[in-house]
Amino acid sequence: MAGENADQFIALEAVAGPDGNHYVENASNFLDIADRELVITKECEDPEKLLAWADDFYTDLASMQTMYGSISDGCITDNGDGTYSVNEPEDGASLDTEAWSNSLREFGPKYMSPEFYDKVSLPETQGDGIKLKEETAFEGVDAVFLF
């Protein structure tokens, strides 16, 4: 897949997850570098430092800003108690449009643990807030039929 640059890469085994399994994502329709991938070339002088930098993207604070936009741009408010509020756009735009315009959104590195949204509040009338509200409406329901 690397073609004439194949000698610059070494294939490594997938990193073990917390349960000891090695997970590999397979997206056969992408034969190039796609989202959710990190490539380190042989020219990297300090791979450990690069990996530490990349690891910083997976904190709650960085993940939240990757998904919704930065605190400094007013997309998110730090409530000062370990919680955050995603703000509705002041210009009346859609929160989804705002997030796609001011963040890496789906294409950025992030990790949102199951407890993530215990620390982050979203407007219930827009974007992911609507989706989360709809999910809770079906908790405990075995089947939903939509016609």
Notes on the structure:
A three-stranded mixed beta sheet has the order 1-2-3. It has helices at 47-55, 60-68, 95-102, 116-119, 127-137, and strands spanning 76-78, 84-86, 120-121. It starts with 46 loop residues before the first helix and ends in a 10-residue tail after the last helix. The model has no long low-confidence stretch (mean pLDDT 81). The chain contains five helices and three strands. β1 (76-78) and β2 (84-86) form a beta hairpin. The chain has 147 residues and is mostly helical. It has one domain (3-137).
Q: Helices and strands in order, then pairings?
A:
Layout: H1 47-55, H2 60-68, E1 76-78, E2 84-86, H3 95-102, H4 116-119, E3 120-121, H5 127-137
Parallel strand pairs: 2-3
Antiparallel strand pairs: 1-2
Notable traits:
globular; three-stranded mixed sheet; 147 residues; 28% helix; mainly alpha; single chain
Spans of at least 5 consecutive residues whose pLDDT stays below 50 are none
- The number of strands is 3
Number of domain units: 1
The total of helices stands at: 5
Major sheet attributes: 3 strands, mixed
In short:
With 147 residues, the protein is mainly α. It has helices at residues 47-55, 60-68, 95-102, 116-119, 127-137, and strands at residues 76-78, 84-86, 120-121.
